[in-house]
Amino acid sequence: MKISALLTSAGINIGLCVLFLSLYSVLRKQPANVRVYFGRRIAEENTRLRGAFILERFVPSTGWIVKALQCTEEEILAAAGLDAVVFNRILVFSIRIFSLAALLCVFGILPLNYFGQYMHHVHIPSESLDIFTIGNVGVKSRWLWVHCVALYIISGVACILLYIEYRHIARLRLLHLTSATPHPSHFTVLVRGIPKTAKESCSDVVDDFFTKYHSSSYLFHQVVYKVGKIQKIMTGAKKAYKKFKHFTDETVDQGCRSLTYRCCLCGASSNSFKLLNTECEQNRRKADNESSLKLDDEECTAAFVFFKTRYAALVASEILQTSNPMNWVANLAPEPEDVYWSNLWLPHKQLWIRRIATLIGSIVLMFLFLIPVTFIQGLSQLDQLQQSLPFLRGILKKKYYMTQLVTGYLPSVVLQIFLYAVPPIMMLFSTLEGPTSRSERKRSACCKVLYFTVWNIFFVNVLSGTVISQLTVLSSPKNLPVQLARAVPLQATFFITYVLTSGWAGLSSELMQLFGLIWHFIRKYVLRMKEDTEFIPSFPYHTEVPKVLLFGLLGFTCSVLAPLILPFLLVYFFLGYVVYRNQLLNVYRTRYDTGGLYWPIAHNTVIFSLVLTQVICLGVFGLKESPIAAGFTIPLIILTLLFNQYCRNRLLPLFRTSPAQDLIDMDREDELSGRIDEIHRRLHSAYCQFPDTEDVPLEKIKIVGGDEEQGSSSGESTGKESCEDPKRDLSHPTLKGLPVSRLRHAVRSITFLIRLQKRGLSE
Amino acid sequence: MKISALLTSAGINIGLCVLFLSLYSVLRKQPANVRVYFGRRIAEENTRLRGAFILERFVPSTGWIVKALQCTEEEILAAAGLDAVVFNRILVFSIRIFSLAALLCVFGILPLNYFGQYMHHVHIPSESLDIFTIGNVGVKSRWLWVHCVALYIISGVACILLYIEYRHIARLRLLHLTSATPHPSHFTVLVRGIPKTAKESCSDVVDDFFTKYHSSSYLFHQVVYKVGKIQKIMTGAKKAYKKFKHFTDETVDQGCRSLTYRCCLCGASSNSFKLLNTECEQNRRKADNESSLKLDDEECTAAFVFFKTRYAALVASEILQTSNPMNWVANLAPEPEDVYWSNLWLPHKQLWIRRIATLIGSIVLMFLFLIPVTFIQGLSQLDQLQQSLPFLRGILKKKYYMTQLVTGYLPSVVLQIFLYAVPPIMMLFSTLEGPTSRSERKRSACCKVLYFTVWNIFFVNVLSGTVISQLTVLSSPKNLPVQLARAVPLQATFFITYVLTSGWAGLSSELMQLFGLIWHFIRKYVLRMKEDTEFIPSFPYHTEVPKVLLFGLLGFTCSVLAPLILPFLLVYFFLGYVVYRNQLLNVYRTRYDTGGLYWPIAHNTVIFSLVLTQVICLGVFGLKESPIAAGFTIPLIILTLLFNQYCRNRLLPLFRTSPAQDLIDMDREDELSGRIDEIHRRLHSAYCQFPDTEDVPLEKIKIVGGDEEQGSSSGESTGKESCEDPKRDLSHPTLKGLPVSRLRHAVRSITFLIRLQKRGLSE
């Protein structure tokens, strides 16, 4: 590719970016789009926006950039949780290291490469981009030590920055742990693999075991049921409720929508929902007490066990309970809003098979994906394209800009479209794996997408770009450095266009929320559905973290070899910094949090990138027959790996478990201040299996009730709040022992009531 | 190699074996050798052997074989510990699986191979051995399904047997844990990485931390000191003691040696030693109380912390103590006699570097070892030998049996000699790694020797035997199955001779204890030294476990491809079963035990062997162009790996930690029976750093004292007994606060006393 082609591509993308950013700055001011661009704010901060028509609304502005840059880390932590801070730190790290790398490589190495071998330079715009890579440096060049020194500086500074970030995030994680609000998950252990006995009920077995072996700290427990009889009744009730909800949306609730964004059910009689709510509570209570349900008891496979102190829960989760490691498997429970209920009842014995199966599935997907990628790679090599599609030859020869477009832009776009399908598939795999929490599922999907991206964007492009149909790369690891050394500088051009299309344009479309905007439009004006006040997406870490890390990988591997990519990359990271901060603050809502567990993934990827860069450089120095530079690279690889090992020893354990000292200190403090009783009392209603937040939006019913305040703290879900009502204690005597038949009867009567009401209103 | 050459080799080895076994059965009856052949019995069972001269003593007999076969597993467990049982089970497993494999392959596959391709057979003795391998089966043979079925049967039965053994050993491990005698190690945690403070002494820091965070279960602690000032004083005292001991050996103690084997100091005044003993106790007490020693305090890096219950110690060892994972690293302590004191003071921060350094060292050794092995491999290929050493050509051409000897026997012997140097080097590496217990050190050395053996005996021979100087094997893993498939059948001959020399002859020399016998002879008649009653070797698991597992690997890989090896291997395992049982019962003494941790190593190696066999068979079926057989092998590989994963989930955790349930039950039982106070009292003297068993044999002094009984239980070391004297409590008030100067003075006066006594006696 020539420089002019690159400039064409860059021009298109810069144009698109400016267009999108301007559009965004206008669209965000339109009240109609407020749900799309300020989902989190509306849900959590009760922001009200005025709907006055003023000209200012249609003028592009940069105020949002200033706002995004001004907000501090504490604000992000408060608004979007620790994971958002980690993501922000990944961007900060990238900006820092690539600023240095760009400075070093563009001014130090780029001239060296340019004036390397072929001194007869043509006019710069029609110069091939390969002339800026290390490929242009002569064999046995005496300037290769500059590349080696640059590699040392970049690796060293990257390690120092990584360590600082790692320590910072570990400290934040500890602070998160010891934060003021007591998390119910700290006191709770999720026990799986409860052995079945013929005599006793599951609940009794759990009670007996923990009373016997953890008597001093055991509080009580709550059995998790397989989605069975009760769930069916619940689903029936929900369907009836939804029908009614839709109906009121259409007929009654027209006036009070749009600007207040507060309630959607004003005017409708709320009695029936109050009843439903109580009913659902009753169901849960039945599940907890289960004095008469024999059927469900057979299907119990897990239980939440609550302990008096955090330390006791930690201990119970860390030790091996019995001599059969498949029984009584205890792990610290996820936060209530993080629990992935439909996986909880999975038998623990299945999990290892599921894990292996999804692993195999992901690997198969990784390799099946090669087919479209190889095809796309063919597109970027114009002569091959002309061979395979002869009718194109005429067009391509005539119109010069068409050629530029096809080589510079099209490959990345097609690849991009294919890549959009990957994260949902990986998410599905992660669901099948059987994680107990949503955050774990997302993190697992993130890892899968990362491996997938690195393999299919980086390796396959590098290796099949030069030697098409060479899928036997893995079979000769010894030759890999040399092959990579040959291929990476050649593929740098493709990576630059990839940064332009996937990076820059991807960020603009992320900012624009194109999908959200279109969906919102269709819902509102085509399908004429009511606004879904409930659905506010959470941040897609599983797509964004791999994306940013992949760009880091591209940056590191190309830095010394083909430094022309670095300015483009730096622009991407700066833009990403602004855009993602804005999105985290305004658009996405944080319902669950891994507590910074994305950082070890980022750390490992950066280390991998560094080592890969060093290995490739080793190969390049070998090809250039520079034994000194190659010899100096080997200790650098060893040092980098040692640094990684040190971090694994020094900081990684903090991301795997919690330190006992801090937990004990917190327990003591709670005990002294007398807060512990309140915490214990709240544990009773912390986890409720059946009133699922997403399916039955209970807080709406509260809004209808009018007087209860809407939750303003970010960490607490609405479903939980309804459960936490202290009046509805589990030990309520009158609700015990209701049989299934009566529940079913109650639901039937509600459904009947709803039908009656609907008919009465529509007639 | 021809069959006749194999028979020559087999003949020599059978002759040697019979000779050695007969010699052993005679030598073992000689009273002079009783220390060599019955070390354990004398040390632990107080057996006394009559020294009468009878003719029976010089007639070879087989009684010992019967005795070795008759003893039950319980007897081995009682006599030689759980590790011996594990080793025994490895042999039993090998006998079982290879009996089946031999039956199946010799009668099913051998004829198929023999009548495979070339039907024009010459006279059997001059037939090449290659004709019995799968190499003789034609391409696209319709009989390859027999090989595939045999592979299925062997893999399936091996997995079933493995699982049975694994479960059995896990059960034994639990029984070992819950055995009647309370182990002090169960109540003790070894804490490393104690943070240094300027204000407080190390002991106070430990006390403060555990009183604060483990107040309910913390008992007391004992600081471990770096070998420094006190140790120097101790060494001086020991030297003086040894001088005197040697002197008394020579002059006084001549009459009461030989047959009673009880004491070596009768007649000498024992007052001075009593004094020394007390002195040593004082030193220890000083170390514990350290009220005035400021110097040593700086060097404290570890401490034994004692807990009230086993469960509390387990909990303390499993959890992360503080937010710095490098500080307060707690692990369950090893048994007192298992502690490797000189590694305890190593700073915990160093350990990970040490581990990496020794790993690199071992890998370097593995690859440097290639040089002699390649040379030896050249020896077995006669034409190459003649090329490199032309003067041999004349000799080798003339004498036919010389050729047979060189090809059939010499390579293995030379290899054998080189291999003798490896275990001590690996043991040194394992020591440098910094393990805290002797058993851990041996286990680590066992792993290293195993990797080394498998690489250097199996892979290098297989791969460099066919393609000499091909060290780039690792660089093409895809071609590995095919290469192995070509090479393994060809190298089967070498492996058969290896079984004969290293296996059979090795067992006989193990039984004979050639080194022990010669050393004993030299000590007694050449150097005229006193018999060393103390030195009874412990079983060299780090050399014998890898040896047996290597033969298993050879058996599995050759079973289907070259079944002629199986009968020889079976003889080896049978012989090994008898010999090792005999040695475990009579010769070696068990001072420390890993508690069955050798089994996971064995399990993993067998799984590796099975998968390797399957991969090689896959390659062979590929070479023979049998897609059906190859296709059926792939699910077998997957099933074997799944089985391994199941075992890792189901049984391996029991080998990593102890189940809380059993520990709590034991704690309760002790509490109810009131035994717990006695246990706590004994903990005070369980671990003593300075009176080292090997250097100062304190029990001798007790024997001099006369009335104290000699320890008969196998698990208790002598050093520990002297420490356990309840009168010598740590809280003895008069011994507190003795300054270093006074200690030094005391030692000087003892040394002076000894000199005086020596002079008086010699004059």
Automatic annotation (TrEMBL), chains A, B:
Keywords: Ion channel, Ion transport, Membrane, Transmembrane, Transmembrane helix, Transport. It is found in: Membrane. Residues 354-621 form the CSC1/OSCA1-like 7TM region domain. Residues 186-343 form the CSC1/OSCA1-like cytosolic domain. The chain crosses the membrane at residues 6-27, 97-116, 143-164, 356-376, 409-429, 449-474, 548-577, 597-621, 628-646. Residues 718-731 have a biased composition (Basic and acidic residues). GO terms for molecular function: calcium-activated cation channel activity. Its main location: membrane. The keyword tRNA processing does not apply. It is a multi-pass membrane protein. It holds the Pfam family RSN1_7TM. Residues 707-735 are annotated as: Disordered. One of its GO terms (cellular component) is plasma membrane. InterPro entries: Csc1-like, CSC1/OSCA1-like_7TM, CSC1/OSCA1-like_cyt, CSC1/OSCA1-like_N. Residues 5-165 form the CSC1/OSCA1-like N-terminal transmembrane domain. Belongs to the CSC1 (TC 1.A.17) family. This is CSC1-like protein RXW8. It comes from Dichanthelium oligosanthes. The lineage of its organism: Eukaryota, Viridiplantae, Streptophyta, Embryophyta, Tracheophyta.
